[in-house]
Amino acid sequence: MNEPVRIGLIGTGSHGRSLLANLLLLPGVEIPALCDVDRDGLAEARDMVVKSGHTEPDGYPGGPEDYQRLLGREDIDAVVIATPWESHAPMAVRAMRHGKYVAVEVPAALTFDECWDVVNAHEETGVPCMMLENWSFRRDNLALLNMVRRGLFGEVVHVQCAHAHDCLDHWFFSPEGTMRWGGRSLVDKNRAQYPTHALGPVWPWMDLGSGDYFDTAVSMAGRPLGINDYFRRKFGPDHPYAEAGFAQGDIVSTLIKTKKGNTIFVKVDMQLPRPYDNQWELQGTRGIYNEQRNSLYLVDRSPEYHQWEPFPPYMEKHDHAWWRGMGAEAAAAGHSGTDYLELALFVDAVRKKTQTPIDVYDSVLMSSIILLSEKSIAAEGVPVECPDFTRGKWRTKKPAFGVEP
Known about the structure:
Layout: E1 5-10, H1 14-23, E2 29-35, H2 39-51, E3 58-60, H3 67-71, E4 78-81, H4 88-97, E5 101-104, H5 112-125, E6 129-131, H6 139-149, E7 156-164, H7 168-172, H8 184-188, H9 196-199, H10 202-205, E8 214-221, H11 226-235, E9 251-258, E10 263-269, E11 281-284, E12 287-290, E13 295-298, E14 309-310, H12 312-317, H13 321-332, H14 338-352, H15 360-367, H16 369-378, E15 384-385
Parallel strand pairs: 1-2, 1-4, 2-3, 4-5, 5-6, 7-10
Antiparallel strand pairs: 7-11, 8-9, 8-15, 9-10, 11-12, 12-13, 13-14
Helix pairs in contact: 1-2, 4-5, 5-15, 13-14
């Protein structure tokens, strides 16, 4: 238990450096090596490690495949992957085949074939792979998970959720109007581009992967107006993107039916003016929770008939053990403490050689909505069947995520 956990970071862009800052706060973590094709980002990350009092890590800036030299090192136990989406699955697969625990940023995969590649690598090597879906670890979402498991909502039958946030001027494009790597997918893809933040807390609330599973998904996309309008408004009608064609619809709505017959509504809204909003709502036979209202109503518990009551007292009463144990450290780390918490739990699993809190099957299930939605939209709203990436294990597997002692 006193042995250091040695982690290599692949991807030292802004988010990779944010994850690195959290890793450097964790006791017993060493960073032997970093990798990125961007030498400036790599140099900044190396300076972060040195300034925190650690030995200067080796750098691998030698091109898109140079990360494989990092994976071949014997002084690395695990890797954190924070690169553009299309490289996540190939890098995760190679890392597992090198015997390295994997924490990969969202999404874990972009196609069904990639989902299977990640699952097969895990099953063939026995090495865990965890997608870093931080909203699974939010304090409110974990308290609600405790309430669900304690039966306060009865049988859960429906959840709605969203990733609703205007990302045009900082994620898909730079503030100056040039396309960033994320924007490339908007040109020829029409799909739920980024659904895992919405689904992050939903799969454990609904026991997906451990008693239930996605069955089919139906998706529809609205017109692609927001990107062109943004560039006309911000840069004028002569900007090349003011009239350019983009396949991605402004709002994608996906309705999922589970094997049990429950339903999940997922909205992805990232191209129209909108402050951040997740829109979580959970409905059961004995009550309802609404994140936007920060309220709930529970049959025979709430003081007024059919009247919302505040959620915070319930969150405090049902606070999860993870937050009771390291809430102060997590809150001090920023980003609602979720990145610190998920990385602390990942490092603990590496140190103990146990399963990660989010496993490979949970990771690909959340990621599968990307392709399910793309296929359904292309087929004019036809239901698309979700592959069973567990090969039937969901029928007998017991819930594992966040189960308190």
